[in-house]
User: Fold this.
Amino acid sequence: MEKVKIFLCKGCEIAQKIDLEKLKKHFNSNAQVESIEILTTLCDGAAREHLAGVEGALLFGACDERTHGVIFRELAGSNPYQLVNLRERCAWVHDDQTEATAKAQRLLSMGLAELSTRPPDQAEWDLDLLHRVLVIGAGPAGLACVRALAEQGCDVTLIEKTNRLGGTLRRTRTVWPSGEDSEKLLHRLYNELQDELHVTVYQQTELVELTESLHGYRVKLSNDVEEEVGAIVVATGIREVGGNLFEFEYRWRDRGDFRGPLAFEVKEDVHPFLLETALWDAVMLRHEKPEERIVFFVPESVVLPEGFKEGAEKHNIEIIRGSIPGGVTGVTGVMSLRPERKLRVIVKMPRRGTGVRGVTGVTGWRGAVVKLGKLVGNLPQELAQALRIPMDKDGYLVQRRFRIRPRDVVHPGIFVVGGAHAPMPMEETINHAFVVAARIKAMFNAKSKRLPAAQIDEEACIGCGYCAAVCPYGAPILERTDTGHKARISPRFCTLCGLCIAGCPVFAIFDPIKSRKTIRAQIESWGNS
Amino acid sequence: MKILGFTCDWAGFALDYAGMIRQKYSADITFINLRCSARFDMVDGVQALANGADGIFFALCPLGDCHYESGNHHAVSRINHFKDLLQIAGLNPERIGFAHADTTDAVGLKNEIESFCSKVKEIGDLSSQVFDRPELVLRVAAMKRVVSSEPVRWTLSKELELVRKGNVFDEKLDAEAYAQLVRDLLRTEYHKGLILEQLAEPRNAVEVAQATGLSAHRVFELIVELERETRASFDRIEHERPLYVEVADG
Assistant:
């Protein structure tokens, strides 16, 4: 074992509260210690000159890693070092000099134990990410994100499941709430994209497999392309369940006209976002057709958004509480897809007298009906599985730590934008895409260090699956081998929190930085001092 | 008075912050930084007791605000079972304390530390009261056997999964029943640990019963169980009584 050189700092009240000379005397007799020096301050140029050329393991008794960590990293250079916080953890919190000195001694010997038991070659590794991004889904969010990333010089691969770009934008008429024409917006996004040289677009392509690699993720696409990317953006958008507002808007845009009264049939599990969009559409329609009847049939259980009633009243749009009298029968699907029938296709055709005479006096409903249902994430189960991220019941990827990092999912370098994140107005979708692009670029540029992953002793592992079940990041995976199941840890997913390490029934997982041995040595040296 | 503290990195920020705003607290307590409180292993807790800790304190993030998703829930469950183990071993479980602290909640954390330190001071020194030092060493050795035994670690680790998520049949187990099961297991394993401590040399059940303070019936029952688990074995018969000895590990 290499001998340790200790340097103690006198600054920041440390010398007033702690008897450094006594510490020096104590550690001089320690067999592990080569020398111990007391310097006026460790964070100034004089200390740097003094320590230049010093080699071997170094132990600094000074201050906080967070405030001065960089300075000590520079001071130590390539030598292994340990910083003991004598300032915040001792000098500043204890008044009595004898007690503070005793505690400082304890802290230093614990630091010494940690330094001497730390494995030498387990340093942090560079997160040297490839500057290439895979964007899944060519909707508005995906396109905007691709553009923002390409502008900043990233190579981007864009994959789209269908054979046309545009996603939801192709299906809607105007963009809510700005009122911009969807088609124009799509063309704008698309034209901007065409000038970019860094973008590869694959249509009718899906993500098949995702494995982690040293510099990011290795992805396999359904068109047999394999690539290594530094980050992945999920922009698969949203889809309606039990409703057809998007289809209505598409028809409306396509035909440009509609006749006859229009009803919006609101389902009980309607997403409030759809209600607002539908009202917006209704108001647009009202401008075109001042005479037509436009009615919202809203079940009693649905709470209308604020201002909804007032907005509807202002534009002479009726709101009827309850379902459509007699229910919707007749032609399946609200809008016939045959062009000649246009939008006025009748859905409800009750026989005379069978309709329920409601308070409003409506007997049956003769006119087009648009249903407003649920909005769920448009994310196939297979994709979520390939990404190894759990999905909630509404089809959105589970976002942990939502309050702290609202843009990130569980795994580093995988982001969700736009509708796949949550239903949101188009402007917000595009802004969201820009934010994520900026996050990715920042991640690429930061020369961030990553902790090494927890490691598994394969011989000791009994394949019980505890670690795989308990890890919130999905880092350990059980693999079948010749000698039964064994766990393997994906280094990119591991945050080294230690949950699996402390819980492993057979002590088969270990921490490469702060091992069991280190903690035990720390406790022992604490007990002995 | 010696108190060992474990703090997660984030509650550690609160601790550093307490220093910055000069919140004074007792110098009896010294903290070890763990990345997350879930890294706390009961083995380390027993190690601390063996090294003369009169109390053990944990500083962790508020529930639901863990920086590693759910680590502190696991930590709290482990700490509570560690308290159970202390109770079983006849030590005061009040010697274990924990506090949830936000990264900026320096004053709150300082108050918690202070009240815990004064509580431990009231309870007193671990070894000086109630029983003598060799007795304590024995108990701690038995506890060490408990916390490193595979069935105990497995049962403890699976607790949150089985109680909150459910088993393979999607049945959620009753939390209180499971905790009781863990306590029973801890008690059995602790008694086995005590017995094994006595079986370094071949001994008969009655001698072991006298040394451990357990009933001869219980000792014999557990020795049979230990034999089945191949942790103890029959040695020879002396004075018409069978002698048993511990099987050396691996």
